[in-house]
Amino acid sequence: MTDLFPPFEPGDEPKPRRFKPVPFRILLPNFVTLLSLGSGFTAMRMAAEERFETAVGFILLAAILDGLDGRIARLLKGTSRFGAELDSLADFLSFGVAPAFILYQFGLKDLKSFGWLVAMLFAIAAALRLARFNVMIDDPTRPEWKKNFFVGMPAPAGAIVALLPVYLFLLGTMRPMGAGGLEALYVLFVAFMMVSRIPTYAGKTLGSRVPREWVIPLFGGVVFIAGLLATYTLEMLAIISVAYLALIPFGVQNYRKRERDDRRVAAQTTATPHS
After folding, report:
1. What pTM does this model have?
2. Looking at residue 65, what is its pLDDT?
3. Can you identify the CATH homologous superfamily of domain 23-142+153-198?
């Protein structure tokens, strides 16, 4: 009976479990990710109200914040598995669901059910693209040079490029009858590029080492481009989208050349007899 009713003293109450505090350097990148998610969600509201220029601005803001959160995490050494998963979920909404909804509200809804299907396929393509990226990033056998390329079009770039018809319309380009069908084909093309295995240039190692004499001109160029983007947002987004699409063949060519160099080095290593 003593085992069933052990003696109890007033001071023997179990102490409540205290959670370990989380460093602010880990929280800050996640705050930036949540701001990106909020920007994407707000873009959907702007599209529902047919305020497409503001919706485009929020997608651009989400892309900028998405580019910052990872860099802030690496700079502060605040990377975490939770942050990586949160970033993927935020990217799916901001660069998959939100652009698809904007495109549907803008013109795809004229195609009724087919337009909705196109928008849904774009969102699904973004989800598949992000899932594949999460799997491939943990590949330990991946050569170092491949980190400078994406497999397929990344989701943020896909969102910016897919909205090209919206930029052109807001800049005053006439939207003729039947334009919805062409826009649907274009959106499907971007969706295909996201899920394809076509390599696109990432530029992750670009500027990792900058010559001292180029520092001041680089700062000036970045400020100049940022000023153009802030002043002529739609024009710059249209130019960036067209330029990005035009550079894809050059990225593929560079990737294939590096692959051939890898195979050549591997063949020479295999053919060389060991001493």
Report:
1. 0.84
2. 93
3. CDP-alcohol phosphotransferase transmembrane (TM) domain (1.20.120.1760)
